[in-house]
């Protein structure tokens, strides 16, 4: 009423409509200044009231320091802080792990919450298209908590009603660049509750030397490398099939040889066998004395696969009605059929009959072999259907560096790239780095396989290799 601007006024149409001679604009009511000031005061009071709960250590430290300085003087405060500093130094040197977990990472989390995420939250989300607008008001997802590990930040976010985690999964690249992180991954905890994981540094940047040979190998958890969070990468072979896909030089051999290295004691005592197919004659031939069977031509490879199918079916017939799972023994060893460059047999071999027989044998092994102790570990460069149409028969998949973004979802399944598995962006100078997607888990895990050098393979063959190797037409066509 105090304003000289009317709430409504007639406006001349720029494009008059015959049925309307005039229209009214939306009323505009000016907010009194006292309400704006009161709102800001309320926000400050609410912020101060929440501080002891959000940052109890920092608030407690400032409060105690202020009380000591006020009542006892600055000398007493300096003495107190000297004692505290000495105590922290002793704690850090004597128990570094607990110091880092209970204090160091909490301080880092508080600092990054205030100066990295809260400070840049609105502009990054607005530019990335993750801010929602309704009735001319902007709604932003709310940061609930920030926690830090040795290598990453985990930002727990409360979503705006009506949005889904898929909105964030589609913007992981924008979020990573917005907050200055190498990558971003989204994990759903519940309804409107997600976690954004931002690595602070690349823990897989340095090569990993060949891992020690385990004394008692666990075929369900073979150590083959390291995960991004610093824990060992344990590869399951018994009871599954594994497909390894990557371009030339991506590190497929590191995965294969690391798995073989982890099984060496089982190969030596006869409870496990490796049947190897090596069309290139350059990768697996170097350690062929470790293998129970070996083939390097199209016909010999198909013969090996068909022999594996026959043995598998014979074992299944003996198990029928007696047992449902396989336990490795010398009589019934665990058999790993290693197929290097499987596309040679399924797509590139000039003989159509060889391609058909190979595809049928691989399909039979991957669909029936898990429960009776036969596993296929296959390596491939091109994951397209016309090259390898049996991808879905491999429960566990490993995507090393790939050529195209579309190939990520071909290997790891639909939505893998949206969840941060950017295998097509892996640095060519990081062979062995990959994304792994296990059966039953939609979340890809970034890993790096250990590098098994020629000297390591030579030592393996000297220590564990047989004097003679079983071969299925290994020398044919030479």
Can you put this structure into words, describing what you see?
With 478 residues, this protein is an alpha/beta fold. The protein folds into three domains: 36-94, no CATH class; 104-201, Threonyl-tRNA Synthetase, Chain A, domain 2; 222-464, P-loop containing nucleotide triphosphate hydrolases (Rossmann fold, 3-Layer(aba) Sandwich). It is built from 13 helices and 18 strands. The chain has helices at residues 33-54, 56-72, 74-94, 96-128, 165-169, 172-178, 252-262, 264-269, 298-319, 343-348, 352-368, 406-412, 454-464; strands at residues 10-11, 23-24, 132-134, 137-139, 142-148, 152-158, 185-190, 193-199, 222-227, 232-235, 242-245, 272-277, 293-295, 334-339, 374-380, 396-399, 433-437, 445-449. The chain has a ten-stranded mixed sheet with strand order 10-9-18-17-16-11-15-14-12-13. It has a four-stranded antiparallel sheet with strand order 5-6-8-7. A hairpin with a 2-residue loop joins strand 7 and strand 8. Helix 1 (33-54) crosses helix 2, helix 2 (56-72) runs antiparallel to helix 3 and helix 3 packs across helix 4 (96-128). It is elongated and about 90 Å long. It starts with 9 loop residues before the first strand and ends in a 14-residue tail after the last helix.
